[in-house]
Amino acid sequence: MATIVGAVTSSHVPAIGRALEKGLQQDPYWQPFFAGYPPAQRWIAQAKPDVAVVFYQDHGLNFFLDAMPTFAVGAAAEYRNADEGWGIPTVAPFRGDPALSWHVIETLVADEFDVTTCQRMLVDHALTLPMALLWPGGGAWPVRIVPITMNHVQHPLPSPRRAYRLGQSVGRALASWPGDERIVVLGTGGLSHQLDGRRAGFINKPFDLMCMDALVDEPEKLTRYSALDLVREAGAQGTELMAWIAARAALPGRVRKVHAHYHVPVSNTAAGLMVFEPESAVLARAA
Ligand code: DHB
Ligand code: FE
Description:
Elements: E1 3-10, H1 15-22, H2 31-34, H3 38-47, E2 51-56, E3 71-74, E4 78-81, E5 94-95, H4 98-110, E6 116-118, E7 122-123, H5 125-134, E8 144-150, H6 160-175, E9 182-188, H7 205-217, H8 227-234, H9 241-249, E10 255-266, E11 269-278, H10 279-286
Helix pairs in contact: 4-6, 6-9
């Protein structure tokens, strides 16, 4: 049986890619942001996952306004990174896990999620930057990935409730996977930010902190918001929070908050990071 080791949720601002390229981790602007990551890196190094299932958003790299899947699941043997316009360096290709991807897809479709299946898929900054933050140092990636994109680009967006149920369904798929892999679930994006329009630069710290708090013990509380509520409270791109909701919902039972970090701003974004562990993992370690 597979082991779900936990979930990590992280922002994915493209400027992080530039900071990594230039080695600016100790720069006064960047230091308070990067300082949040070593505890998450240490937790990952200890948890030793074989696979990362990643809820994130495609920002116009695979899908554009002419063809926009609400949810798409990668089922490729390899995923290459390409530049969707930010000019940050691309990273090494990721190995996929087609068998696990198809098991996730089978479960989602059985649960009435009509997902788009992608046997060819590129991955953008929303996947690569959290990966680079959690597994620093470059070179080949030590985990295979199952990428799951959620539309946050073109309305109508899915609702937080739908994101929660998507995460639960993926959690059921992972719990029923007969392989013996150790699996970590990632959710990327957020927290509050708006890149365009009259509210460009909008950040809502009280709302972000409320969400980070709710995600630990009462994530369902966040499902009472509509997608448009999230736009109002967290900004047009703050709807990326839905990937955090999905990742948290994929964990079985109660969880322990291993680590949390929040720093405002990084570029136009309130940057957040959380690490959750299922209580079952804590009990198994103690036994
Ligand atoms: C920024 C944040 C994002 O989530 C993104 O996808 C692109 C840019 C930013 O704050 O610059
Ligand atoms: Fe984004």
